[in-house]
Predict the structure.
Amino acid sequence: MEFTKSHDVAELNAAMAGSEVVLAGWIEDLREMGRMTFVTLRDASGRCQIIAKGEAAASLAGMTRQSVVRVSGTIQETRARDFDFEVAAGDITLLAGAVHPLPIDPIGRLRSNIDTRLNHRALDMRDQKTAAVFKVRHRVLQSTRNQLSGRFTEITTPKIIGSASEGGANLFSLEYFGRTAYLAQSPQLYKEQMTIGLERVFEVSSFYRAENSHTGRHLTEFTSIDVESAFMDYTDVMDVLEALVARVCADVAEGCAGELETIGHTAVVPARPFDVVTYQTALEELREEGVSLEFGDDLQDAHLRILGRMHPGFFFLTDWPLKIKPFYIMEKDGEVSRSFDLQYGHLELSSGGTRLHDPAVLKSRLVEQGLDPAQFAEHLKVFGWGMPPHSGWGMGLDRLMAVLTGHDNVREVVLYPRDPDRLLP
Ligand code: AMO
Protein backbone atom coordinates (compact mmCIF):
# COMPACT_ATOMS: atom_id res chain seq x y z
CA MET A 1 0.00 0.00 0.00
CA GLU A 2 1.33 3.43 -0.95
CA PHE A 3 0.97 6.08 1.79
CA THR A 4 2.42 9.23 0.31
CA LYS A 5 0.84 12.10 -1.58
CA SER A 6 2.30 14.51 -4.14
CA HIS A 7 0.50 17.65 -2.97
CA ASP A 8 -1.56 19.16 -0.20
CA VAL A 9 -4.88 20.45 -1.51
CA ALA A 10 -3.84 24.06 -0.85
CA GLU A 11 -0.94 23.67 -3.27
CA LEU A 12 -3.28 23.05 -6.22
CA ASN A 13 -4.92 25.62 -8.50
CA ALA A 14 -6.84 25.88 -11.75
CA ALA A 15 -3.70 26.83 -13.71
CA MET A 16 -2.43 23.30 -13.04
CA ALA A 17 -5.14 21.77 -15.27
CA GLY A 18 -3.74 18.67 -16.96
CA SER A 19 -1.32 17.87 -14.10
CA GLU A 20 -1.33 14.43 -12.53
CA VAL A 21 -1.52 14.55 -8.74
CA VAL A 22 -1.77 12.15 -5.84
CA LEU A 23 -3.84 13.44 -2.91
CA ALA A 24 -4.69 11.92 0.44
CA GLY A 25 -7.17 12.98 3.08
CA TRP A 26 -10.66 12.40 4.44
CA ILE A 27 -13.96 12.06 2.62
CA GLU A 28 -15.94 15.06 3.81
CA ASP A 29 -18.86 14.54 1.46
CA LEU A 30 -19.89 11.99 -1.13
CA ARG A 31 -22.73 12.44 -3.67
CA GLU A 32 -23.74 10.05 -6.40
CA MET A 33 -25.20 11.69 -9.50
CA GLY A 34 -26.03 9.08 -12.13
CA ARG A 35 -22.82 7.44 -13.30
CA MET A 36 -20.65 10.01 -11.54
CA THR A 37 -19.74 10.36 -7.89
CA PHE A 38 -18.58 13.67 -6.42
CA VAL A 39 -16.31 13.50 -3.40
CA THR A 40 -15.27 16.44 -1.27
CA LEU A 41 -11.78 15.56 -0.10
CA ARG A 42 -10.46 17.34 3.00
CA ASP A 43 -6.88 17.49 4.15
CA ALA A 44 -5.37 19.74 6.81
CA SER A 45 -4.69 22.44 4.23
CA GLY A 46 -8.13 22.67 2.61
CA ARG A 47 -10.63 20.78 0.52
CA CYS A 48 -11.23 20.05 -3.12
CA GLN A 49 -13.69 18.26 -5.38
CA ILE A 50 -12.93 14.82 -6.78
CA ILE A 51 -15.02 13.53 -9.64
CA ALA A 52 -15.13 9.77 -10.10
CA LYS A 53 -16.51 7.71 -12.97
CA GLY A 54 -16.36 4.06 -13.96
CA GLU A 55 -13.93 1.99 -11.90
CA ALA A 56 -12.96 4.91 -9.67
CA ALA A 57 -16.67 5.48 -8.84
CA ALA A 58 -17.13 1.75 -8.23
CA SER A 59 -14.24 1.72 -5.76
CA LEU A 60 -16.12 4.25 -3.62
CA ALA A 61 -18.92 1.75 -2.98
CA GLY A 62 -19.35 1.23 0.75
CA MET A 63 -16.86 3.96 1.74
CA THR A 64 -18.11 6.10 4.60
CA ARG A 65 -17.71 9.81 5.21
CA GLN A 66 -14.55 10.67 7.21
CA SER A 67 -12.74 7.59 5.86
CA VAL A 68 -9.14 8.11 4.70
CA VAL A 69 -8.49 7.79 0.98
CA ARG A 70 -5.66 8.25 -1.46
CA VAL A 71 -6.67 9.62 -4.83
CA SER A 72 -4.58 9.79 -7.95
CA GLY A 73 -5.99 11.80 -10.79
CA THR A 74 -5.77 14.76 -13.13
CA ILE A 75 -6.62 18.38 -12.39
CA GLN A 76 -9.29 19.79 -14.69
CA GLU A 77 -11.61 22.77 -15.02
CA THR A 78 -14.85 22.60 -13.12
CA ARG A 79 -18.38 23.89 -13.42
CA ALA A 80 -18.87 23.63 -9.65
CA ARG A 81 -19.60 26.95 -7.97
CA ASP A 82 -17.70 26.19 -4.76
CA PHE A 83 -14.43 25.09 -6.37
CA ASP A 84 -11.93 26.58 -8.82
CA PHE A 85 -10.89 23.21 -10.24
CA GLU A 86 -11.63 19.53 -9.74
CA VAL A 87 -9.63 16.33 -9.84
CA ALA A 88 -10.77 13.59 -12.22
CA ALA A 89 -9.96 10.44 -10.26
CA GLY A 90 -8.00 7.65 -11.92
CA ASP A 91 -7.67 5.55 -8.82
CA ILE A 92 -9.17 5.80 -5.31
CA THR A 93 -7.76 3.62 -2.52
CA LEU A 94 -9.26 3.27 0.93
CA LEU A 95 -6.45 3.71 3.50
CA ALA A 96 -8.63 3.46 6.61
CA GLY A 97 -12.37 3.35 7.13
CA ALA A 98 -14.37 5.50 9.54
CA VAL A 99 -16.81 3.38 11.53
CA HIS A 100 -20.31 4.87 11.69
CA PRO A 101 -22.12 6.16 13.62
CA LEU A 102 -19.34 8.58 14.58
CA PRO A 103 -19.64 10.10 18.08
CA ILE A 104 -19.67 13.65 16.71
CA ASP A 105 -20.17 15.02 13.24
CA PRO A 106 -17.23 17.33 12.58
CA ILE A 107 -18.96 18.97 9.60
CA GLY A 108 -22.46 18.99 11.02
CA ARG A 109 -24.45 22.19 11.04
CA LEU A 110 -25.17 21.72 14.73
CA ARG A 111 -21.98 21.70 16.78
CA SER A 112 -21.92 19.26 19.66
CA ASN A 113 -21.51 20.79 23.13
CA ILE A 114 -18.00 21.35 24.44
CA ASP A 115 -17.92 18.29 26.72
CA THR A 116 -18.94 15.96 23.91
CA ARG A 117 -16.36 17.52 21.60
CA LEU A 118 -13.60 17.31 24.23
CA ASN A 119 -14.47 13.65 24.81
CA HIS A 120 -13.74 13.07 21.11
CA ARG A 121 -11.12 15.77 20.62
CA ALA A 122 -9.19 14.10 17.80
CA LEU A 123 -12.30 13.90 15.66
CA ASP A 124 -13.32 17.40 16.76
CA MET A 125 -10.05 18.62 15.19
CA ARG A 126 -11.55 17.84 11.80
CA ASP A 127 -14.18 20.50 12.57
CA GLN A 128 -12.72 23.55 10.83
CA LYS A 129 -13.73 25.89 13.67
CA THR A 130 -11.68 23.83 16.10
CA ALA A 131 -8.73 23.37 13.72
CA ALA A 132 -8.70 27.15 13.12
CA VAL A 133 -8.26 27.81 16.85
CA PHE A 134 -5.16 25.63 16.95
CA LYS A 135 -3.73 27.20 13.81
CA VAL A 136 -4.10 30.57 15.55
CA ARG A 137 -2.42 29.08 18.63
CA HIS A 138 0.48 27.96 16.47
CA ARG A 139 0.81 31.50 15.10
CA VAL A 140 0.71 32.99 18.61
CA LEU A 141 3.55 30.71 19.73
CA GLN A 142 5.57 31.53 16.63
CA SER A 143 4.97 35.25 17.07
CA THR A 144 5.89 35.09 20.77
CA ARG A 145 9.19 33.40 20.02
CA ASN A 146 9.95 35.81 17.17
CA GLN A 147 9.26 38.81 19.39
CA LEU A 148 11.22 37.65 22.45
CA SER A 149 14.11 35.75 20.86
CA GLY A 150 15.97 38.89 19.85
CA ARG A 151 16.76 40.00 23.41
CA PHE A 152 15.82 37.00 25.55
CA THR A 153 17.21 33.47 25.70
CA GLU A 154 14.61 30.69 25.69
CA ILE A 155 15.00 28.27 28.59
CA THR A 156 13.23 25.13 29.81
CA THR A 157 13.02 24.76 33.59
CA PRO A 158 12.18 21.51 35.40
CA LYS A 159 8.58 20.51 35.90
CA ILE A 160 9.34 17.92 38.59
CA ILE A 161 10.56 19.87 41.58
CA GLY A 162 11.55 19.31 45.19
CA SER A 163 9.88 22.34 46.79
CA ALA A 164 7.16 24.85 45.97
CA SER A 165 7.79 27.68 43.53
CA GLU A 166 4.79 29.84 44.41
CA GLY A 167 4.38 29.03 48.10
CA GLY A 168 2.61 26.08 49.65
CA ALA A 169 -0.91 26.03 48.23
CA ASN A 170 -2.14 24.31 45.08
CA LEU A 171 0.75 21.87 44.71
CA PHE A 172 0.35 18.49 43.06
CA SER A 173 2.61 15.99 44.76
CA LEU A 174 3.90 12.69 43.48
CA GLU A 175 5.90 9.78 44.75
CA TYR A 176 9.48 10.11 43.54
CA PHE A 177 11.63 7.07 44.36
CA GLY A 178 10.64 7.11 48.01
CA ARG A 179 10.54 10.91 48.30
CA THR A 180 7.83 13.46 47.65
CA ALA A 181 8.21 15.57 44.54
CA TYR A 182 5.88 18.25 43.17
CA LEU A 183 4.73 19.46 39.77
CA ALA A 184 5.97 23.00 39.11
CA GLN A 185 3.32 25.73 39.54
CA SER A 186 5.49 28.19 37.58
CA PRO A 187 9.16 28.57 36.59
CA GLN A 188 9.42 31.42 39.10
CA LEU A 189 12.49 30.49 41.12
CA TYR A 190 14.44 29.00 38.22
CA LYS A 191 13.80 31.88 35.85
CA GLU A 192 14.96 34.31 38.55
CA GLN A 193 18.11 32.24 39.10
CA MET A 194 18.89 32.23 35.39
CA THR A 195 19.18 36.02 35.32
CA ILE A 196 22.55 35.67 37.09
CA GLY A 197 24.09 34.12 33.98
CA LEU A 198 21.81 34.86 31.03
CA GLU A 199 20.31 38.20 32.18
CA ARG A 200 17.18 38.00 30.04
CA VAL A 201 15.27 34.72 29.70
CA PHE A 202 11.86 33.46 28.60
CA GLU A 203 10.04 30.16 28.74
CA VAL A 204 6.86 28.74 27.20
CA SER A 205 5.78 25.64 29.09
CA SER A 206 2.99 23.79 30.87
CA PHE A 207 2.60 24.32 34.61
CA TYR A 208 0.38 22.66 37.17
CA ARG A 209 -1.92 23.89 39.91
CA ALA A 210 -4.09 21.72 42.14
CA GLU A 211 -6.87 24.30 42.05
CA ASN A 212 -10.31 22.89 42.56
CA SER A 213 -11.77 25.65 40.37
CA HIS A 214 -14.65 25.16 38.01
CA THR A 215 -14.47 28.30 35.89
CA GLY A 216 -13.86 29.08 32.24
CA ARG A 217 -10.40 30.46 33.06
CA HIS A 218 -8.80 27.89 35.39
CA LEU A 219 -7.16 24.62 34.44
CA THR A 220 -4.98 22.30 36.50
CA GLU A 221 -2.48 22.21 33.61
CA PHE A 222 -2.01 25.49 31.78
CA THR A 223 0.59 26.97 29.44
CA SER A 224 2.50 29.99 30.64
CA ILE A 225 4.70 32.44 28.77
CA ASP A 226 7.26 33.66 31.29
CA VAL A 227 9.83 36.42 31.09
CA GLU A 228 12.53 37.39 33.56
CA SER A 229 15.08 40.12 33.09
CA ALA A 230 18.05 41.44 35.05
CA PHE A 231 18.46 45.23 35.25
CA MET A 232 14.81 46.01 34.61
CA ASP A 233 12.13 47.42 36.90
CA TYR A 234 8.48 46.37 36.72
CA THR A 235 7.57 49.22 34.40
CA ASP A 236 10.28 48.04 31.97
CA VAL A 237 8.90 44.50 31.83
CA MET A 238 5.39 45.96 31.42
CA ASP A 239 6.74 47.55 28.22
CA VAL A 240 8.10 44.16 27.13
CA LEU A 241 4.69 42.61 27.78
CA GLU A 242 2.74 45.34 25.99
CA ALA A 243 5.01 45.10 22.94
CA LEU A 244 4.61 41.31 22.89
CA VAL A 245 0.81 41.42 23.12
CA ALA A 246 0.66 44.09 20.40
CA ARG A 247 2.91 42.02 18.11
CA VAL A 248 0.90 38.84 18.70
CA CYS A 249 -2.39 40.65 17.96
CA ALA A 250 -0.93 42.15 14.77
CA ASP A 251 0.50 38.82 13.59
CA VAL A 252 -2.81 37.05 14.22
CA ALA A 253 -4.77 39.80 12.44
CA GLU A 254 -2.44 39.64 9.47
CA GLY A 255 -1.62 35.94 9.30
CA CYS A 256 -4.84 34.32 10.49
CA ALA A 257 -7.58 36.27 8.70
CA GLY A 258 -9.01 33.05 7.24
CA GLU A 259 -8.95 31.24 10.59
CA LEU A 260 -10.65 34.16 12.36
CA GLU A 261 -13.33 34.18 9.67
CA THR A 262 -13.89 30.44 10.16
CA ILE A 263 -14.11 30.95 13.93
CA GLY A 264 -16.42 33.94 13.43
CA HIS A 265 -14.38 36.41 15.46
CA THR A 266 -12.85 39.71 14.46
CA ALA A 267 -9.17 40.39 15.11
CA VAL A 268 -8.34 42.05 18.44
CA VAL A 269 -6.73 45.44 17.78
CA PRO A 270 -5.22 46.79 20.99
CA ALA A 271 -5.35 50.51 21.75
CA ARG A 272 -1.84 51.60 22.76
CA PRO A 273 -0.42 52.58 25.11
CA PHE A 274 -2.40 50.30 27.43
CA ASP A 275 -4.14 52.18 30.25
CA VAL A 276 -2.32 51.99 33.57
CA VAL A 277 -4.64 51.99 36.58
CA THR A 278 -3.14 51.78 40.06
CA TYR A 279 -4.76 49.54 42.65
CA GLN A 280 -5.55 52.72 44.65
CA THR A 281 -7.35 54.28 41.66
CA ALA A 282 -9.20 51.00 41.09
CA LEU A 283 -10.47 51.16 44.69
CA GLU A 284 -11.72 54.71 44.06
CA GLU A 285 -13.39 53.67 40.81
CA LEU A 286 -15.07 50.79 42.61
CA ARG A 287 -16.20 53.12 45.40
CA GLU A 288 -17.93 55.32 42.83
CA GLU A 289 -19.77 52.19 41.70
CA GLY A 290 -20.89 51.56 45.26
CA VAL A 291 -18.30 48.90 46.16
CA SER A 292 -16.29 49.79 49.20
CA LEU A 293 -13.01 47.94 49.73
CA GLU A 294 -10.16 48.54 52.18
CA PHE A 295 -6.56 48.94 51.03
CA GLY A 296 -5.17 45.40 51.19
CA ASP A 297 -8.34 43.63 50.06
CA ASP A 298 -7.84 41.44 47.00
CA LEU A 299 -9.97 42.21 43.95
CA GLN A 300 -12.49 39.42 43.46
CA ASP A 301 -13.99 38.40 40.14
CA ALA A 302 -17.09 40.56 40.77
CA HIS A 303 -14.85 43.62 41.31
CA LEU A 304 -12.79 42.86 38.21
CA ARG A 305 -16.00 42.61 36.20
CA ILE A 306 -16.92 46.18 37.21
CA LEU A 307 -13.40 47.43 36.39
CA GLY A 308 -13.44 45.47 33.14
CA ARG A 309 -16.61 47.29 32.06
CA MET A 310 -14.89 50.62 32.79
CA HIS A 311 -11.71 49.58 30.97
CA PRO A 312 -12.62 47.27 28.11
CA GLY A 313 -9.60 45.86 26.32
CA PHE A 314 -6.05 45.60 27.66
CA PHE A 315 -5.06 47.57 30.75
CA PHE A 316 -2.53 47.28 33.56
CA LEU A 317 -3.52 47.20 37.23
CA THR A 318 -0.41 48.24 39.14
CA ASP A 319 1.05 48.93 42.58
CA TRP A 320 -0.81 46.24 44.51
CA PRO A 321 -0.67 45.99 48.30
CA LEU A 322 2.51 44.13 49.24
CA LYS A 323 0.72 41.80 51.62
CA ILE A 324 -1.38 40.14 48.90
CA LYS A 325 1.57 39.63 46.55
CA PRO A 326 3.90 36.60 46.51
CA PHE A 327 6.98 36.61 48.76
CA TYR A 328 9.39 37.44 45.93
CA ILE A 329 7.82 40.82 45.02
CA MET A 330 9.66 44.01 46.03
CA GLU A 331 8.07 46.88 47.96
CA LYS A 332 7.68 50.31 46.33
CA ASP A 333 6.95 52.39 49.37
CA GLY A 334 5.44 51.29 52.63
CA GLU A 335 2.66 48.84 51.92
CA VAL A 336 2.67 49.26 48.15
CA SER A 337 4.56 46.82 45.91
CA ARG A 338 6.28 47.10 42.54
CA SER A 339 3.79 44.81 40.83
CA PHE A 340 1.17 44.63 38.11
CA ASP A 341 -1.46 42.51 36.45
CA LEU A 342 -2.35 42.76 32.78
CA GLN A 343 -6.10 42.60 32.32
CA TYR A 344 -8.27 42.13 29.26
CA GLY A 345 -11.46 43.61 30.62
CA HIS A 346 -12.26 41.48 33.66
CA LEU A 347 -9.87 38.69 32.71
CA GLU A 348 -6.42 38.57 34.32
CA LEU A 349 -3.94 37.59 31.64
CA SER A 350 -0.64 38.13 33.39
CA SER A 351 0.98 39.16 36.62
CA GLY A 352 4.48 40.27 37.40
CA GLY A 353 6.68 42.68 39.22
CA THR A 354 10.09 43.67 40.48
CA ARG A 355 11.69 40.92 42.58
CA LEU A 356 13.57 41.05 45.82
CA HIS A 357 17.25 40.42 45.22
CA ASP A 358 18.48 40.92 48.80
CA PRO A 359 18.45 37.46 50.43
CA ALA A 360 17.96 38.85 53.95
CA VAL A 361 14.78 40.69 52.91
CA LEU A 362 13.62 37.65 50.93
CA LYS A 363 14.08 35.44 53.98
CA SER A 364 12.08 37.74 56.23
CA ARG A 365 9.30 37.94 53.63
CA LEU A 366 9.12 34.14 53.50
CA VAL A 367 8.69 34.07 57.27
CA GLU A 368 6.09 36.88 57.16
CA GLN A 369 4.07 34.80 54.69
CA GLY A 370 4.26 31.71 56.88
CA LEU A 371 6.72 29.89 54.61
CA ASP A 372 9.79 28.07 55.86
CA PRO A 373 13.08 29.54 54.53
CA ALA A 374 14.67 26.09 54.99
CA GLN A 375 12.38 24.83 52.18
CA PHE A 376 13.91 27.49 49.92
CA ALA A 377 17.57 26.90 50.92
CA GLU A 378 18.59 25.85 47.39
CA HIS A 379 17.07 29.01 45.98
CA LEU A 380 18.37 31.36 48.66
CA LYS A 381 21.97 30.26 48.26
CA VAL A 382 21.99 31.56 44.67
CA PHE A 383 21.37 35.05 46.07
CA GLY A 384 24.89 35.04 47.52
CA TRP A 385 26.46 34.59 44.09
CA GLY A 386 25.77 38.02 42.62
CA MET A 387 22.02 38.28 42.08
CA PRO A 388 21.20 41.27 39.87
CA PRO A 389 18.08 43.40 40.41
CA HIS A 390 15.46 41.78 38.19
CA SER A 391 11.81 41.81 37.15
CA GLY A 392 9.49 39.60 35.18
CA TRP A 393 6.01 38.32 34.50
CA GLY A 394 4.02 35.22 33.62
CA MET A 395 1.14 35.27 31.12
CA GLY A 396 -1.41 32.51 30.67
CA LEU A 397 -1.25 31.54 27.00
CA ASP A 398 -4.62 29.82 27.21
CA ARG A 399 -6.31 32.96 28.51
CA LEU A 400 -4.66 35.08 25.82
CA MET A 401 -5.84 32.57 23.21
CA ALA A 402 -9.39 32.77 24.58
CA VAL A 403 -9.28 36.55 24.09
CA LEU A 404 -7.83 36.32 20.58
CA THR A 405 -10.42 33.80 19.41
CA GLY A 406 -13.42 35.20 21.30
CA HIS A 407 -14.02 32.27 23.64
CA ASP A 408 -15.16 32.51 27.27
CA ASN A 409 -13.83 29.07 28.13
CA VAL A 410 -10.10 28.27 27.96
CA ARG A 411 -11.02 24.63 27.32
CA GLU A 412 -11.87 25.64 23.73
CA VAL A 413 -8.25 26.65 23.07
CA VAL A 414 -6.43 23.78 24.84
CA LEU A 415 -5.98 20.45 23.07
CA TYR A 416 -6.78 18.13 25.96
CA PRO A 417 -7.73 20.35 28.90
CA ARG A 418 -7.15 19.14 32.43
CA ASP A 419 -9.44 20.28 35.23
CA PRO A 420 -10.67 18.68 38.46
CA ASP A 421 -13.25 16.66 36.50
CA ARG A 422 -11.34 15.95 33.32
CA LEU A 423 -8.35 13.64 33.10
CA LEU A 424 -9.36 11.82 29.90
CA PRO A 425 -8.86 11.62 26.99
P1 AMO B 1 0.19 33.96 38.53
O1 AMO B 1 -0.05 32.92 39.55
O2 AMO B 1 -0.63 35.21 38.60
O3 AMO B 1 1.70 34.47 38.56
O4 AMO B 1 0.03 33.32 37.10
C1 AMO B 1 0.35 34.05 35.93
C2 AMO B 1 -0.73 33.86 34.88
O5 AMO B 1 -0.87 32.49 34.56
C3 AMO B 1 -2.22 32.21 34.23
N1 AMO B 1 -2.74 31.19 35.15
C4 AMO B 1 -3.64 30.24 34.82
N2 AMO B 1 -4.26 29.98 33.67
C5 AMO B 1 -5.12 28.93 33.64
N3 AMO B 1 -5.40 28.15 34.70
C6 AMO B 1 -4.79 28.37 35.90
N4 AMO B 1 -5.06 27.58 36.94
C7 AMO B 1 -3.87 29.46 35.99
N5 AMO B 1 -3.10 29.97 36.97
C8 AMO B 1 -2.44 31.01 36.45
C9 AMO B 1 -3.00 33.49 34.38
C10 AMO B 1 -2.11 34.30 35.31
O6 AMO B 1 -2.28 35.70 35.13
N6 AMO B 1 5.16 33.50 38.94
C11 AMO B 1 4.07 34.44 38.73
C12 AMO B 1 4.30 35.31 37.52
C13 AMO B 1 5.48 36.24 37.67
O7 AMO B 1 5.45 37.07 38.60
O8 AMO B 1 6.43 36.14 36.86
C14 AMO B 1 2.78 33.65 38.59
O9 AMO B 1 2.75 32.46 38.40
O10 AMO B 1 -3.12 34.10 33.11
